[in-house]
Amino acid sequence: MAKRMPRVAVVHCAGGTAPLDGIVREELPHDCAQIKAAHPNGIGVCLWGCLGGGSCEAACPFGAIHVDADRHVAVVDRDACRGCGKCAKACPQHLITVAPAANAIQVRCSNQDRGPAARKACPNSCIGCGMCERVCPMGAVRVVDGRAVIDDEKCVACGMCATKCPRGAIHDANGIMAVR
Questions:
Q1: Helix (H, G, I), strand (E, B) or coil at 54
Q2: How many whole angstroms separate alpha carbon 52 and alpha carbon 157?
Q3: Which of 12, 58, 96, 104 could form a disulfide with 110 if both were Cys (CB 3.0 to 4.6 A apart)?
């Protein structure tokens, strides 16, 4: 029987979008499903982003994920994460996936707007420029629905996409390669 490779949660949002007019984050419930029910059109300029309610944090039995108070986005402690996927199931925005731990290159954006609209929505957004797709020697990166998507089976974590991404939307979780 083949041994299962270690897996970790990946949050496909870097945070940083401004709240919509009238949204006071401190007044929102600490449950993302409740936030989404009360605000079906989102709470931030980027409607694809993390709601910051902490449902993923509450679901994690290992304490491996928390909501960053400054950026209002879920952040994974890769050393504590066991890849159980409970945080992914708890996210009503579907921003969290579970990926092989060896693949440290991550797209931290789920915005499906293109170019100027994505740029306006968030300072960390993928704008779908395709630079990552062009520089990947393994053909592991594709732009789908206006954002970069990495095929974990093809990615060898060379980091070319992370170093060439003009928006810093592709991130090296090990902190080795990055534009910003």
A1: coil
A2: 28
A3: 12
Q: What is the pLDDT of residue 99?
A: 93
CATH of the domain at 52: 3.30.70.20
**Residue found under tokens 């945070």:** 15
What is the rounded CA–CA span in Å between residue 134 and residue 20?
35
Domain limits for position 133: 7-172
User: Does residue 2 lie in a domain region?
Assistant: no
- The model carries a pTM of 0.91
In a domain, 1, yes or no: no
Mean model confidence pLDDT for the chain: 92
Q: How many CB atoms sit inside 10 A of residue 24's CB?
A: 8
**Number of structural domains the chain divides into:** 1
- pLDDT of 81-99, one tens digit each? 999 999 999 999 999 999 9
Q: Which residues contact 104 (CB under 8 A, 6 or more apart)?
A: 157, 172, 173, 174, 176
The set of residues, in sequence order, having a beta carbon less than 8 Å from that of 90 and lying 6+ positions away, is 32, 55, 56, 58, 59
